[in-house]
């Protein structure tokens, strides 16, 4: 599909009555939710990478108190954390996207990954398997998510990650996966400020950010740098409620974290070599022209930031 067509269609659906339901059905039939198992397995691997990095910086899953920004259509990360023995997982979304059919599919699909979750978390496989079976059975009986996880997973939507009612110094880790690139730049500082408030001293944030043009996933004729060609006034034609992209570069998210008072522990970025070659074929919009090419061409970043211990 031509990326412009998708952008305009989503823009219309974003403002029309019932547009959310129509958009969901289109995603199930033609979009990213069409091949659920493939997308789900990718999310499981993303969780594995996060859990391994958290363990390396002293935050094991078992017994952890976690806060997720951006639950999405189905809560893969919170349920993986639950199976791994997390003490509590609060997950919030600005809009309520959770779908019961995908939630059940997620719970069932986790059976394929019990061994992986147990290995990553360092807990007995039988224990993880028992939790997964009980979870899937409870959700098939139409139990709500909190009841199905014995109160561990707390899904809140609509909810603002910049204004929670959680007590201060309460959470071990705040995390997100492919979410911050969809947040308005002016909101990120508030989200990080709230994260610092609710984290315990020495607690951490983990964020994985995909800061390339997401339309490249549906239109093979463009690259992940495509959207850098357009000034804001022109980009607004295609930016929309269902696929809002802030176009911030990877370093900007780290700078927001530092401005909020966090110390950066680790940062892993995508290699820019391929993107540097692609950049030569584009005429970059004036607002990006002053950014060094190496920064423009980094289209993903994972970083860990720590709240001061005192």
TrEMBL record:
Protein name: Methyltransferase type 11 domain-containing protein
GO molecular function: S-adenosylmethionine-dependent methyltransferase activity
Top-level taxonomic group: Bacteria
Pfam families xref list: Methyltransf_11
Gene3D superfamilies in the record: Vaccinia Virus protein VP39
Organism: Rhodanobacter lindaniclasticus
SUPFAM superfamilies (UniProt xref): S-adenosyl-L-methionine-dependent methyltransferases (SSF53335)
Family annotation (InterPro entries): Methyltransf_11, SAM-dependent_MTases_sf
Domain Methyltransferase type: 153-206
